[in-house]
Amino acid sequence: MQSIVTFIASAEASDGGIMGAFGIDVPTLIFQGVAFLLLVVVLGKWVFPVFMAAVDRREERISESLKAADEARQAADTAGEDVARLLKEARNEANEIVSTAKQEAAVMVQDAETKARNKAEAIAAASLEELNKEVLAAKKMLRDETLDLVALATEKVVSKTVSDGVDANLIKASLKEAGER
Amino acid sequence: MAQRISRRKLSEHVASRLLNGDSSVITQLAAHLVETRRTKEADLYVYDIEATLLNKGVVVADVVSARHLAQETKDAIASFLQDSYSADRVELRQSVDPLLIGGVRVGTADAEYDASLRRRLTKLQKMKV
Questions:
Q1: Which residues 45-74 in chain B show a CB within 8 A of chain A?
Q2: Rounded Cα gap, residues A46 and A55, in angstroms
Q3: Which end of chain B is more exposed for a tag (fewer CB within 10 A), N or C?
Q4: Contact state of B101 with A158 under an 8 Å Cβ cutoff
Q5: Does A168 sit within 8 Å of B72, measured CB to CB?
Q6: What is the DSSP string of B41-106?
Q7: pTM for the full model?
Q8: Does the pLDDT of residue A15 top 70, yes or no?
Q9: CA A109, CA A111: separation in Å to the nearest integer?
């Protein structure tokens, strides 16, 4: 390699022409061209593939990430919709439960009122019946005591007022009544 | 020991003798009851004798009054019994019980008629409910 470079350098100093007027050294140019081509080959065979593979991998990772992000966004959107739907369903269910609970509570209150009213009426009726019984018992007792008093008073009065004549008339009247029967 | 005679037959015998005017039969009956230790049946004998007399047209009645009855009243009672039983004769056994207050209670062998004031007062008291 070093001998080639030395050769080109010596040929350059000996020949001129148009290329020499523009300052272009043909051997050097050729050498640089070959070097460039060599570089291109080396880069194309060993560097660019690796580099491009890395770039491709990076691009692929980026696209995958973008895809995953899109999917995640879509999933989030879907999840958000699901959440909203579930919330709506839960809200509706809660409203139904509250409504049902209110209805049941109203029914329970009404039942309790009816039971309380019936019980109160039953108590009142029982009390009235008990009162009537007590009144009847009191009336009976009063009647019985009155009869006893009347009998006792009558006995005392009659014992004092019945004379022999009255007794005789009483007996005759009784006999007459018995005979007519 | 005296032979046991049935109460019915003995009562009929006593009633017959009484109707014939033999009042000593009562004493004999009493002695018989004592001898045969049947004094507890005395009331039954009296009842049977009176029943027998009733069948034969003689009414024997217990008359209980609150005070002694005048003859007129006794006659009225006897007349009542005679009409009621179509009897030939009426014999009254009178007694006094002031508890009757007034009126009379007449009892025969088969019935009792209570026209006393005591009964009326008792009836009044029984009106209790």
A1: 65-67, 69-70, 72-73
A2: 14
A3: N
A4: yes
A5: yes
A6: GHHHHHHHHHHHHHHTTEEEEEEEESSPPPHHHHHHHHHHHHHHHT-SEEEEEEEE-GGG-SSEEE
A7: 0.53
A8: no
A9: 5
ipTM above 0.90, yes or no: no
Q: What is the largest CA-CA distance in chain B?
A: 58
Nearest CB partner across the interface for B80, out of A140, A168, A178: A178
CB-CB contact of A155 with B101 (8 Å): yes
- At A108-133, the pLDDT tens digits run 999 999 999 999 999 999 999 999 99
Mean pLDDT of chain B: 88
- Asked if B76 and B115 touch (Cβ cutoff 8 Å), the reply is no
Q: What is the distance between the alpha carbons of residues A45 and B80, in angstroms, rounded to a whole number?
A: 172
The pLDDT assigned to A132 comes to 96
Helix, strand, coil in percent for chain A, rounding step 5: 95, 0, 5
Polymer length of chain B? 129
User: What are the tens digits of pLDDT across the range A35-93?
Assistant: 999 999 999 999 889 988 999 999 999 999 999 999 999 999 999 999 999 999 999 99
Q: CB pairs below 8 Å between A and B: how many?
A: 68
CA distance A124 to chain B (A): 28
Spell out the long-range contacts of B14-22 with Cβ–Cβ below 8 A and sequence spacing 24 or more.
Answer: B14/B45, B14/B49, B15/B49, B15/B52, B15/B53, B15/B56, B18/B49, B18/B53, B19/B53, B19/B56, B19/B58
* Short-list B121, B69, B67, B117, CA closest to B97: B67
CB neighbour list of residue A146: distance below 8 Å, 6 or more residues apart: none
Query: A121 is written with which tokens?
Result: 């009426």
Question: SS3 for B112?
Answer: strand
